[in-house]
Design brief:
Oligomer: single chain
Number of helices: 5
Order of helices and strands: HHHHH
Helix content: 40-55%
Distance between the termini: 75 Å
Radius of gyration: 41 Å
Amino acid sequence: MSRGKDGPEDVDATFAEIVADLRADGFGLPENDTADTADAAGSGVGTGNEPRKTPDRPAEPPAVDTPPEPGWRSGGTSWDTTMFSDDPAGDDEHYVPPEPPPLPRPKMGAFLILLLFLAGLFLLILPGAIGVGPTVATPLGILALATSIALLLLRVRQGPPPGADPSNGAQV
């Protein structure tokens, strides 16, 4: 078989040859046919011109006008029933969450950190507005931002809230 640049020149002939080799080995045939061809090939009795048996195809199921009701494998109700019917749970089972606790009042340290953060941003964005050159304002702005972020992170509480009993277990 001669091969061209991209593969064999006669693709159909090559494919037919591959299929013939596979069918000789018994691939692609129904089980009844493979036993017959193996017996015929082994005994040398078959001529190969005998008509093959085609497997019986099952009849197509009749067309159903209405969809079947859900069976034991489904969820019990159809999609339309679930989505478009009234809510089976009454209003008596509706969960109403409690009111959240009020936010704590910010302390003086929080205001100072916010002021330092805003001053750092102002120095980085508009250094000429206060008459400072960019060579001085940029390092000062970065230092102010870094300091405010560090102080903000140091204020984060690490541990149980005040008044909590440590022997009470996990607190959610």
